[in-house]
Write a structure and sequence with these properties.
With 206 residues, the protein is an all-alpha fold. Among the domains are: 10-55; 70-143, Orthogonal Bundle (DNA polymerase, domain 1), CATH 1.10.150. It has 6 helices and 2 strands; from the N terminus they run ααααααββ. It has a two-stranded antiparallel sheet. A hairpin with a 7-residue loop joins β1 (173-174) and β2 (182-183). The longest helix is centred in the N-terminal third of the chain and has 27 residues, at 10-36. It is elongated, with a radius of gyration of 25 Å.
Amino acid sequence: MNWARRPLTERMEQYARNDTRHLKPLSDQLRAALKEKGRLDWQKETCQQLIVDCADIPTSSRDQWRMKGSDRLNPRGLAVLRELWKWREKEAIASNKPPFFVLNHDLLLRMAHESERIKNIDKFLPPRLSPRRREAILAAVAEAGPGDFIYVPPYVPHQEINASRDEVLECVLVRSDGEAVAINLDIEPAEPPEEVRWVDPTHPAG
């Protein structure tokens, strides 16, 4: 059942009414059984911990925005997906709704994919989207560009792909120890820069 729909169907209303009719007597029976076994305090502590855990807003990891299907996006599409995901998370927290109620995964991927071909994805937005959210989504897409800080483990080869066709990729090396130092030396590169196409089975040359 989709409890986000309005108005609710008659069947959904009946289902909700049955909850209020049967859950209270059931709760009383379970509480009495726990009290009889001397486990009531344990149950209260467990429920309180669940409340605390569920109320905690998890910290986003760097790659948390990646989802099933994102491996088929090119660098531009990945940058758009990242910004849309970040906006959706903030919007979901502000409206106290699950993220997929704001924008579902399929729509996020579709907009990211379309942004690889065109710059204006306005026609792919849901028709019932509020003007405020519409403007925020378009702003997020416009914000998409080269990425943020990433962590590369020691001895692991890494290649940074430029998300922009029009801007030069610039990288800053940052040490991750207790005294982080940014190294940005204004010297000529050891080799002249060249354009390297990202070509693999997922991203064929075109």
